[in-house]
TrEMBL record:
Top-rank taxon: Bacteria
Pfam families: CxxCxxCC
HAMAP family from the UniProt entry: UPF0260
PANTHER family assigned to the protein according to its UniProt record, in alphabetical order: UPF0260 PROTEIN YCGN (PTHR37421:SF1)
Organism in which the protein naturally occurs: Aestuariirhabdus litorea
Family matches, as InterPro entries: Puta_zinc/iron-chelating_dom, UCP006173
Name of the protein described by the UniProt record: UPF0260 protein D0544_05465
Family according to the record: Belongs to the UPF0260 family.
Length: 149
């Protein structure tokens, strides 16, 4: 009888993952593509419902390969920066694995379906405004709390 092999995310650290494995951890929720504000005094990060102009209706980046050229402030998640992931949503696979927690049932790697992140209401699909339409000085008016929970 064949022995059951644990999924890569349960047997490898973030730093041990291949590029393909690393990229597959992204659940496609789009939360990290929301514009965020950080309080200078206590460093608290606040999410807004203002999304990057390059986010598609499917919560994916339309310029992924050149995102850092198009948006120099775009955050590029890398294994060596894992200790900086505190700002990621508590639902994010990168953060969950870093914290030693399980992926949720709706994560595509668990469910086998890229739509479960949307049907579970985790993604930002249909909940955002584009940063092309909202000036940065108005982002504070768009702070949300459902994303950092």
């Amino acid at each position: 009888m064949a022995q059951k092999v644990e999924p890569f995310w349960k047997r490898k650290s973030l730093g041990e993952m291949s590029r393909e494995e690393w990229e597959s951890l992204c659940d496609g929720c789009g939360r990290c593509c929301l514009q965020k504000l950080q309080d200078e005094e206590d460093e608290q990060v606040y999410y807004t419902r203002v999304a990057c102009r390059y986010m598609t209706d499917n919560c994916r980046c339309s310029v992924y390969a050149s995102r850092n050229e198009k948006v120099p402030t775009c955050v590029w998640l890398k294994p060596e920066d894992v200790e900086q992931f505190y700002w990621l949503p508590t639902t994010c696979a990168y953060r969950l694995i870093w914290e030693g927690k399980e992926l949720d049932w709706w994560h595509p790697l668990v469910s086998g379906d890229t739509e479960t992140v949307h049907t579970a209401g985790i993604s930002v699909r249909g909940k955002t405004l584009s940063d092309a339409d909202i000036p940065e000085d108005q982002w504070e008016e768009q702070i949300i709390n459902w994303c950092s929970e």
